[in-house]
Write a structure and sequence with these properties.
With 175 residues, the chain is mainly α. It contains five helices and no strands.
Length: 175
């Protein structure tokens, strides 16, 4: 005899494993409408997530910037301390993203997006890219990403322009 369900007073029906239930079809398989809808929803969410953020492709910006720096340091004789500034701002930017991510998770006061963008513009954009990918923070918000990539491009353009502008002074000074 079946034992009653706790608290219900009604006998509990015992079914062998794989038998049909209210959430499955007569042959014991999951109802197709619910599972097909859930699968489509998951595919749509994954597609949207890939479309919204640059994802791992954003690492290419850092990889492309390394030869630019190397050329600037060797051919244009840009001082090496400028590379240390990029490294310092990148570490600072990564840490600020981490603090903002923790604030978001725990419902605390957030760091303004303006601050994140200014740090990226100052040279911290490589650290921001790493934080966006590793911490999964600010990587899906389209408006933020658009402005972020503008700040990164502005920073690189300023670096190149400054390196080319200073090149005659640094090359002549070495002779």
């Amino acid at each position: 005899m079946d034992s009653p369900r706790a608290g219900s007073g009604a006998p509990q029906e015992r079914r062998p494993r794989g038998a049909a239930s209210a959430h499955s079809s007569k042959d014991g398989k999951p109802a197709k409408a619910a599972s097909a809808g859930q699968a489509a929803r998951r595919r749509g969410q994954a597609r949207a997530a890939r479309a919204e953020g640059a994802g791992p492709a954003s690492y290419l910006a850092i990889v492309a910037f390394v030869p630019v720096c190397l050329l600037a340091f060797t051919l244009l004789q840009v001082p090496l301390w400028s590379g240390l500034l990029y490294a310092g701002f990148s570490v600072l930017c990564f840490l600020v993203y981490a603090v903002d991510k923790a604030a978001a998770l725990y419902g605390r006061r957030r760091i303004p997006e303006k601050t994140l963008h200014l740090l990226a513009l100052a040279g911290g954009w490589p650290g921001a890219i790493l934080a966006q990918q590793w911490l999964r923070h600010k990587s899906r918000k389209r408006s933020f990403q658009r402005l972020f990539w503008c700040t990164a491009l502005l920073n690189v353009a300023a670096f190149i322009a400054l390196a080319l502008w200073l090149a005659p002074f640094t090359v002549d000074a070495s002779h």
